[in-house]
From TrEMBL:
InterPro entries: Acyl_CoA_acyltransferase, GNAT_dom, N-term/lysine_N-AcTrnsfr. Pfam families: Acetyltransf_1 (PF00583). This is N-acetyltransferase domain-containing protein. The keyword rRNA-binding does not apply. GO terms for molecular function: acyltransferase activity, transferring groups other than amino-acyl groups. Residues 3-166 form the N-acetyltransferase domain. Keywords: Acyltransferase, Transferase.
Amino acid sequence: MSVTIRIVSNDTELKEIAELASEIWHECFVDIISEGQIDYMVGMFQSYNAMTRQIINEDYSYYAVRENDELCGYIGVKPEKDKRLFLSKLYLRKDKRGKGIASLMLKNVFDTAREYGNTEVYLTVNKHNDHAIAVYKKIGFKVIEETVKDIGCGYVMDDYIMSFAL
């Protein structure tokens, strides 16, 4: 197994990630939120246009994760002024889980955070995403806050904020 994780540097790759995002969201969140909310959130936060806006206006960086040259996951991070790195997105295709790829992805996130001089990585996770919560806790993330955020069109993000001290 050959896994590469590298920063996205062109529109073609970002479009490929946006397509993968839709695929992953529709397989992972169908038992947690409605199909309508999945479509809405993919459009608002995971589409090519949304990710382009995040890169240009919000200082996000995206990383493509490939196994044997096949795109299988992606990471989105945003450094913040308070020595924290926001892990906005860490997604891996279902058929690639359990192979150690997610661990490599998190190592990349932690290394990136250290390069930025951050002392903490934090993320948001849906309160009903039991598998992801268990994985993050096993790694050492701790729930530090609960949040409910109105994202428009009658939808909310009902999340835990989890933190990992570097």
